[in-house]
Design goal:
2 copies of one chain form a homodimer. Chain A has 289 residues and is α/β, with parallel strands linked by helices. The first copy, chain A, has a single domain, classed as 3-Layer(aba) Sandwich (Carbamate kinase). In chain A, 37% of the residues lie in helices and 22% in strands. Chain A contains 9 helices and 16 strands. In chain A, the strands form 3 sheets. Chain A has an 8-stranded mixed sheet with strand order 5-10-2-1-13-15-16-14, with helices on both faces. In chain A, helix 2 links the parallel strand 1 and strand 2. In chain A, helix 3 packs across helix 4, helix 6 packs parallel to helix 8 and helix 7 packs antiparallel against helix 8. Chains A and B meet through helix 4, strand 5 and helix 5 of A and helix 4, strand 5 and helix 5 of B.
Chain lengths: 289, 289
C-alpha cells in the first residue's frame, strides 16, 4: 500500500483515511528527549500509511533561552498544586521563538529530511487551538500568594479539526505546538498535553500517545521499577495523587481525552528506539475507558 | 459580496476565486515598518473578497536577538555586491526563532484579532519554498575574501502552489516567512523578496507588492523626492546600478516576478495608512512588463 498522500489517486487516499484512524503523538520538551528517534518512527509509520498528528513541547529550551536573555523563567502554582509558566508578554515572545520558531522548524526539518511532508502549525494558525484566556489568576509565585493580571495563559476548548483533516487528506503531516489562540485572537500559553488531548478527541483519534523522558506513570517517582502498566479511566483521579510535577498534567490530559471519546491513551518513553510503535503496542502505561 | 471563505457556500467561493486573482504582499523586516497598518489593510482587503498571501521579513529583529545572545550578525558580500546574512547553524536557529517564531506568530495574532483566519508557514512546511543550498560560497566577510562552507543559504526554485491554493480555497490567509527547504530537506536562509517573487509567479498573482520603509525606488537614496514612479522591465538592469543595499534584491525580485509572468510589481511604503491599497492604486514605484 502506498503511503498516505503519496498516491495521486484521490480515492485510494480516501480508503486509507477511513481504514486507518489517526494517531495523535505528544512529545515533551524536557531534557533527554531524543527527537531523532521520534522522527524516525513518525517517518516509518507515515510511510506504512498510518496518519499521525505530532504535538510537541519546548519547556527545557524555553528555560535555557529565558536565562540567556536575562529573564529567568518563573512559575505559577495553583491552589490545586498544578504549575504553569508565568507568561507575561515578553515571556510569550520567548515562548513563541522556542516553540513555534526553533523547535517546530527543526522538527519539520527532521521530518522533511526523512521524506515526510510535514507542516508546522501553532494554535493561532487557523485558530487551530482556541479557548479563553484567564484574565486574572490567583496563584503562588515564588512562595507568595498573588493575583496575576499580565499572564497570557488559557485553556484549549475548541480545535479546528477541519484544518487538520484538510492537511491529512492531502498527504501532509501536521506538527503542532502552543501558543494557542484566545477567543479574542491573542496568543496564549496553554498546556501541550491537554492541547494534545483536545486534538485527539476532535479527530476521534485511535490512540493518544504521550511520550516523555520516563517510561510511563510511576507509583514512586523516580523509581522506574514502579511503572504502572495499565490503568482504567476511573483510576485516574487516584493517579493524580502520586503523579509528580509535569506528570499531573499528563494524567489530566489522559482523563480529558478519554472523556472526549478517545479509546486509549498511552504514556510512553521517548528515549528508546521506535518510541511510538512501542507505545502503540502497549509498552508504558496504557489507560483505557 | 461576502468575504472569501466566510461563506459556507463552496460554489460562491469558487466564483470569487476565479474572479479575483491573488495579490502577493511582501513586507520587509527593517526598523520603522508598521505591521499594525499593514495588517489593518490586509483585513480590509480580505473582507472585501481580495485573496492575499503575505510574506514577511525579520532582519532587524534578527540582528537585535543575535546581539543579545552574544552572536553579532555577520554579512557576506558576493563579488557582484549583493549582501546576505552569514547563516551558520546557530544563526539559523536564531533566524528561525525570529522569523518563524516571534514575527510570524505576532503577525498571525494581529490578523486573527482583526478577524482574518491567517495560517503561518515557513518554507519548510509542505516544502513550500524549495531550492538548492549553496554548499560553498566565495564572498567578502568583514573585508576579507574567503570560501565559506558552513553557510546554510540557498535560492528558491520551486513553490508548492498546491498548498497555498488549498488554504486560500478554504478561506485561510497564508502568512509566509523564510527559512526555506533545501532539496535535501535542510532549513536554509533565502532572500524574502525573491521568495515572494517566486510565490507570485507560481500563483499567477495579479500583483506583487513589496513594502519597505522607503516610498519606492529612489534614484538618489535616501532623497525621497528622487522617487521613480514607474519603470519598464527592460529598465530594471540599469536600476540595479543605483539601487542601494537591500533595494538591490527587491529589484532582482521584481525582475524575476515579471519574467515569471506577473503583470505588475509595485514597491510601496509600509509606513503609511492603507499601504497595500495605495500600492495597488499605483502609489510608489510601478514596474510592468
Amino acid at each position: 500500500m502506498s503511503a498516505l498522500g503519496w498516491s495521486s489517486l484521490g480515492y485510494i487516499r480516501e480508503v486509507e483515511m477511513t481504514a486507518r484512524p489517526v494517531i495523535v503523538v505528544k512529545v515533551g520538551g524536557s531534557a533527554g528527549i531524543n527527537y531523532d528517534l521520534v522522527c524516525d518512527d513518525v517517518a516509518a509509520l507515515v510511510k506504512e500509511g498510518q496518519p499521525i498528528v505530532l504535538v510537541h513541547g519546548g519547556s527545557h529550551e524555553t528555560n535555557l533561552l529565558s536565562e540567556r536573555l536575562g529573564k529567568p523563567p518563573r512559575f505559577l502554582t495553583s491552589p490545586q498544586g498544578f504549575t504553569s509558566r508565568y507568561t507575561d508578554p515578553e515571556t510569550l515572545d520567548i515562548f513563541a521563538m522556542v516553540y513555534a520558531g526553533k523547535m517546530n522548524t527543526r522538527i519539520v526539518e527532521r521530518l522533511q529530511k526523512r521524506g515526510v511532508n510535514a507542516v508546522g502549525l501553532s494554535g493561532l494558525d487557523g485558530r487551530l487551538l482556541e479557548g479563553p484566556r484567564k484574565t486574572s489568576v490567583r496563584a503562588v509565585v515564588d512562595g507568595r500568594q498573588v493575583l496575576v493580571r499580565d499572564d497570557y495563559t488559557g485553556k484549549v476548548e475548541r480545535v479546528n479539526a477541519g484544518l487538520l483533516r484538510l492537511l491529512l487528506d492531502n498527504g501532509y503531516t501536521p506538527v503542532i505546538s502552543p501558543p494557542a489562540c484566545s477567543t479574542e485572537g491573542e496568543a496564549i500559553n496553554v498546556d501541550g498535553d491537554r492541547a494534545a488531548a483536545m486534538i485527539a478527541a476532535a479527530l476521534s483519534a485511535r490512540q493518544l500517545i504521550i511520550l516523555s523522558n520516563v517510561p510511563g506513570l510511576l507509583r514512586n517517582f523516580p523509581d522506574e521499577s514502579s511503572l504502572i502498566p495499565s490503568l482504567k479511566y476511573d483510576g485516574l483521579e487516584q493517579a493524580l495523587s502520586f503523579a509528580e510535577g509535569r506528570m499531573k498534567k499528563k494524567v489530566l490530559g489522559a482523563s480529558e481525552a478519554i472523556a472526549g471519546g478517545v479509546a486509549q491513551v498511552v504514556f510512553g518513553d521517548a528515549r528508546i528506539g521506535r518510541p511510538i510503535l512501542n507505545a502503540m503496542q502497549g509498552k508504558g502505561t496504557v489507560i483505557s475507558a
